[in-house]
Write a structure and sequence with these properties.
- The protein contains 13 helices and seven strands.
- The protein is of the alpha/beta class.
- The strands form two sheets. It has a five-stranded parallel sheet, sandwiched between helices. A two-stranded antiparallel sheet has the order 4-5.
- Helix 3 crosses helix 11.
- Bound molecules: thiamine diphosphate and magnesium ion.
- Thiamine diphosphate binds next to strand 4.
Length: about 350
């Protein structure tokens, strides 16, 4: 029972109401735009790189940029971010080189980073398992008396996982400084939201944990920013976690390996594409007189150039040593390992005899 996000009642909105967000000046508005353009460029180039065989299967986040950039801009640099595969490029907003994320999608070990370098956790592929990590880290920050908060991204499907319940409940009981940012794109691969829950809204689930639940238009970067900023303020003030449900509709395939035409509402997809989040924000900034053609072209060129340099850097990285496949697999390697490894080297070296 998919509903139109931008026609849906009860969602917080800024852009469609043509209002302004307190505390956001011209510079901050443009910084948000730059982040969205960078994410959009990363995503669109990645789909092309996948088709060219230069990266592996890729989880597309087209039209999710508003919730990703809006949420991250509401954080301070020291705050923690826990991404799922849908937010794989979120580190770019913390200065992570784009080639690091491309390495990850190329299955290269250079695609892993030390989370403490950016306060960005590893990209989590198992659904929801990073939610208890984010809650535990938030609780730890509180125990250490720090003012830092933690934000975790996950999808609508993740709210059906035990790990979501465990993380949300722990954070609530411990008053942990956590923001639970749910990307409700209304699909978990081919499973619609209506098969996921009997709750009227996902934000209603917050009630059961004793935390506030708010619903925002997930295609409205300023609404996501504003709602997340309030959640962050609560968390920093020691008032515990908040559940933010950012409502959108998945307008692209789940990933490059998916063909949604067999299950999705194609009319709704077209509708969503016409109202996609970057264009909405661009039109808002132009109405305000903050963005013009020249600046827009400069911002887009800068992002395109960054991606060209990133794919070149990723492809210039030497292949890893195959010994890495086993390096962290055993505390006590079996006696046969050395022979297995030399056989693997022989096969990879082209000697199949
Ligand atoms: C524990 C676990 N079960 C199943 C999967 C397979 N899987 C990959 S993506 C996905 C759908 C998740 O949907 P949602 O949480 O709504 O996030 P979205 O992909 O829509 O951003 C599933 C079931 C997985 N990765 N991990
Ligand atoms: Mg989903």
């Amino acid at each position: 029972m998919a509903q139109l996000a931008h026609g849906e009642p009860g969602l917080r909105r800024v852009i469609d109401e043509d209002r302004e967000v307190e505390g956001l000046g011209e510079q901050e508005l443009l910084d948000l735009y730059r982040s969205m353009v960078l994410l959009r460029t990363y995503d669109e180039r990645s789909v092309v790189y996948h088709r060219q065989g230069r990266i592996g299967t890729y989880a597309i986040f087209w039209n999710h940029e508003a919730m990703q950039a809006g949420a991250v801009h509401a954080l301070e640099e020291a705050d923690w971010i826990f991404p799922s595969y849908r937010e794989s490029a979120i580190g770019l907003l913390r200065g992570m080189p784009a080639e690091t994320v491309l390495h990850w999608w190329r299955g290269h070990p250079a695609g892993w980073w030390n989370p403490a370098d950016y306060n960005v956790g590893s990209i989590c592929v198992p659904i929801g398992t990073h939610i208890p990590h984010a809650a535990g880290l938030a609780w730890g920050l509180k125990l250490k008396g720090e003012r830092t908060v933690s934000l975790v991204f996950f999808g609508d499907g993740a709210t059906s996982e035990g790990a979501f319940h465990e993380g949300a409940n722990l954070a609530a009981v411990m008053d942990a400084p956590l923001v639970l940012l749910c990307n409700n794109n209304q699909w978990a691969i081919s499973t619609p939201l209506s098969a996921q829950t009997r709750a009227a809204t996902l934000a209603d689930k917050a009630l059961g944990y004793g935390m506030p639940g708010v619903r925002v238009d997930g295609g409205d970067v300023l609404a996501v920013y504003e709602a997340t900023r309030e959640a962050v303020e609560r968390a920093r003030a020691g008032e515990g976690p908040t559940f933010v449900e950012a409502v959108t509709y998945r307008a692209a395939p789940h990933a490059t390996a998916d063909d949604p035409r067999v299950y999705i509402d194609l009319e709704r997809v077209e509708e969503e594409k016409r109202n996609e989040c970057l264009g909405r924000y661009e039109r808002y900034l132009r109405r305000l007189g903050v963005l013009g053609d020249e600046l827009d072209a400069a911002i887009r060129n800068e992002a395109a150039e960054a991606m060209r340099a990133a794919i070149a850097a990723a492809e210039a990285e030497p292949e890893p040593d195959v010994a890495l496949v086993f390096a962290h697999a055993y505390a006590n390697p079996p006696a046969s390992l050395a022979a297995d490894l030399s056989e693997l080297r022989r096969i990879l070296g082209g000697d199949l005899g």
